[in-house]
């Protein structure tokens, strides 16, 4: 079993209203030191072992998990530690 | 300037409808090998330098970024590389 962690972030230059809202809220709570906030998705998958896990995960990202027009993605594959 | 990356995930045992929806969609696209999917948030902050950045970020998470009832969080602090 493999644990795959996918990080999906908005491409540079794409407006991030959620990030702006977080930055404004942090400022109103007194955290003036925050200059910029950007929000993305973080997906953890447990995937059965087989040889081309990386290719399959890339396909999953391209087909479903990430929107190629406005999002970038990267992923990490490691041995799953079942809790 | 520091770059802070915050990972917010649902606590073990908390139902994850978004994760379930992703798993079902991946199966319908032919990715049967996916056994489990859980979705979280990934927030990148740029924060001005000062001594207790870790404490301040912990406060930001406790007060705003994470819901302590259903979510866990962890964060990483590194030197910011401005692009």
UniProtKB/TrEMBL annotation, chains A, B:
It catalyses: N(2)-formyl-N(1)-(5-phospho-beta-D-ribosyl)glycinamide + L-glutamine + ATP + H2O = 2-formamido-N(1)-(5-O-phospho-beta-D-ribosyl)acetamidine + L-glutamate + ADP + phosphate + H(+). Keywords: ATP-binding, Cytoplasm, Ligase, Nucleotide-binding, Purine biosynthesis. GO terms for cellular component: cytoplasm. GO terms for biological process: 'de novo' IMP biosynthetic process. The keyword rRNA-binding does not apply. SUPFAM superfamilies: PurS-like. Pathway: Purine metabolism; IMP biosynthesis via de novo pathway; 5-amino-1-(5-phospho-D-ribosyl)imidazole from N(2)-formyl-N(1)-(5-phospho-D-ribosyl)glycinamide: step 1/2. It is found in: Cytoplasm. One of its GO terms (molecular function) is ATP binding. It comes from the Bacteria. Its EC number is 6.3.5.3. Part of the phosphoribosylformylglycinamidine synthase complex involved in the purines biosynthetic pathway. Catalyzes the ATP-dependent conversion of formylglycinamide ribonucleotide (FGAR) and glutamine to yield formylglycinamidine ribonucleotide (FGAM) and glutamate. The FGAM synthase complex is composed of three subunits. PurQ produces an ammonia molecule by converting glutamine to glutamate. PurL transfers the ammonia molecule to FGAR to form FGAM in an ATP-dependent manner. Belongs to the PurS family. Part of the FGAM synthase complex composed of 1 PurL, 1 PurQ and 2 PurS subunits. NCBIfam families: phosphoribosylformylglycinamidine synthase subunit PurS, PRK05974.1. PANTHER family: PHOSPHORIBOSYLFORMYLGLYCINAMIDINE SYNTHASE SUBUNIT PURS (PTHR34696). This is Phosphoribosylformylglycinamidine synthase subunit PurS. It comes from Virgibacillus oceani. The lineage of its organism: Bacteria, Bacillati, Bacillota, Bacilli, Bacillales.
């Amino acid at each position: 079993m493999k644990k795959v962690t996918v990080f999906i972030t908005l491409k540079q230059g794409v407006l991030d209203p959620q990030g702006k809202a977080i930055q404004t809220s942090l400022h109103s709570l007194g955290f003036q030191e925050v200059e910029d906030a950007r929000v993305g998705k973080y997906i953890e998958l447990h995937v059965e072992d087989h040889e081309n896990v990386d290719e399959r995960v890339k396909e999953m990202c391209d087909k479903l998990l990430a929107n190629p027009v406005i999002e970038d993605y990267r992923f990490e594959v490691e041995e799953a530690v079942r809790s």
